[in-house]
Amino acid sequence: MATTKQRRIFKFRMDNSDLDDTPDALDEEEQEKLIARMRAENQERNDEYLRLFLALPLVTPMTFLPAIATSSLYQVKFLSFICISSLLATGYILVFISFNRPNNRSRKPQDPDRFEPATGPVAQYLPYLNGALSFLLALNAVGWKGRGGVHQGFWILCLQPALVFSTIVAAKRIMLEVDIDELEDLKYGYKGA
Fold first, then answer.
1. pTM of the predicted model, to two decimals?
2. Which is nearest to 126 in space by CA: 90, 74, 176?
3. pLDDT in tens, 61-74
4. What Rg, from alpha-carbon coordinates, does the chain have?
């Protein structure tokens, strides 16, 4: 005769006594507080990264000032001004143009103290135009390598807009990956006492 045993559910015993005291479920108010705290921490971290990465397109144009001041070729001066304008456009993209999430379902309005992201044709086309300009400047940099009448590092300066633009776009994409609004969908209806 076969005997059956009742199976018991295995519960992992926690070594930390602090974790044993926390409840398994959060009520609505605790969920709201947790989401609000996480949203504030995420916004604070994004603002720190914004200030850090904004230094790139604002400081690198200064490297073109010696080329503008000392070069006798108008091509070098013109190319330097184009590089500076590309770097400043990259800074504008970083601060004022927001990239969209694929499933942007934000139900709550943004903080009214924050600026509104740019909309319209500038926001729509500037990232693409600046990316193409940065790519063309990088291609042009190869032509300046070893050319006479210019200091030897000018071709490296022409690579700066493409490097800064790609860094800024990657940073904005990484900052966009954290979506606190997805937590709103994961809330469960546990009512507290």
1. 0.72
2. 90
3. 999 999 999 988 89
4. 26
